[in-house]
Specification:
Protein name: DNA repair exonuclease
Number of strands: 12
Radius of gyration: 17 Å
Organism: Isoalcanivorax pacificus W11-5
Number of domains: 1
CATH architecture: 4-Layer Sandwich
Helix content: 10-25%
Largest sheet: 6 strands, mixed
Number of helices: 6
Distance between the termini: 18 Å
CATH class: Alpha Beta
InterPro entries: Calcineurin-like_PHP, CNP_phosphodiesterase-III, Metallo-depent_PP-like
Family: Belongs to the cyclic nucleotide phosphodiesterase class-III family.
CATH topology: Purple Acid Phosphatase, chain A, domain 2
Keywords: Exonuclease, Hydrolase, Iron, Metal-binding, Nuclease
CATH superfamily: Metallo-dependent phosphatases
Strand content: 25-35%
Structural class: alpha/beta
Order of helices and strands: EHEHEHHEEHEHEEEEEE
Length: 264
């Protein structure tokens, strides 16, 4: 099973040659599902959402989408206060926390944005419990994924301030309930780190897989456009590949491959 994890395309700042390379990759590899983890647009404008919707409609497979902080209006204060997800819903429907379940897969979407926060994300106690209960009902055969926008672990000290508010409560509860992978973005920096439950090193382990910006020119430092390809073979066997855009090749190339043992 192949799952493509994209984040932070920031339509409105997308690069046409990178979009073309991503389309070529999708045609070649034929993922079964695309997970789009927020900051779909740069400024939550209708035209930007229309471009994002057209991209999703052109995919040869289903897509599950959650919003990011850039998908809420920044300068239109009236819309931010009274209809913050209006343009998002017009493009992607009313559900801000979609769930997808198949025989070998469970994906739980989480809306980590809030109009009251300009940049940072937050999860409530109700959200934590909803996700925990859904994960707890999963079967051993299912790869259990939580998809949201904001990170729960930082690779660099400067990103600690960007961590999801409430992650200290959410992560151990979700890992203990059966979380395998937590897919996030927001900081345009790809990496893979382990997650632990309440028993620490002696208990269950999950993984957080961060994605860079898939399409935008708003790359971070020397980190190019990138995305993740998740390969799930059987219960307990999972690989996360990071694919970076190469300007020389005008294509995405596999930069890193991480074997992710799953607790079963």
């Amino acid at each position: 099973m192949l799952i493509l994890h994209l984040s932070d395309p920031h339509f409105g700042t997308e690069q046409s040659h990178v979009v073309s390379a991503l389309r070529q990759f999708i045609t070649q590899h034929q993922p079964e599902l695309v997970l789009l983890g927020g900051d779909i647009t740069q400024r939550a404008r209708r035209s930007q959402f229309s471009a994002a919707r057209a991209f999703v409609d052109d995919l040869p497979c289903p897509a599950l989408v959650v919003p990011g902080n850039h998908d809420i209006p920044l300068f239109n204060l009236f819309a931010r206060l009274f209809n913050p997800y209006g343009n998002y819903r017009r493009a992607f429907g009313d559900g801000l926390e979609p769930v997808l379940e198949r025989e070998r897969l469970l994906v739980v979407g989480v809306n980590s944005t809030t109009p009251g926060r300009h940049k940072n994300g937050e999860v409530s106690a109700a959200q934590i419990e909803r996700v925990r209960a859904r994960l707890a009902r999963a079967t051993p055969q299912q790869l259990r994924i939580v998809l949201l926008h904001h990170p729960v672990r930082a690779l660099q000290e400067t990103d600690v301030a960007n961590l999801l508010v409430g992650h200290e409560q959410a992560v151990p509860a979700w890992v203990d309930a059966g979380l395998d992978l937590l897919l996030a973005g927001h900081i345009h920096l790809p990496y893979v780190l382990p997650l632990r439950g309440r028993q620490g090193d002696t208990g269950r382990r999950g993984w957080t897989v961060q994605a860079g910006t898939a399409l935008s020119y708003r790359v971070r430092g020397n980190v190019p456009n990138s995305f993740n390809l998740i390969r799930y073979r059987q219960p307990g066997e999972c690989v996360a590949e990071r694919w970076d855009y190469s300007l020389l090749a005008r294509a995405f190339l596999c930069e890193e491959r991480n074997e992710l043992p799953l607790s079963r």
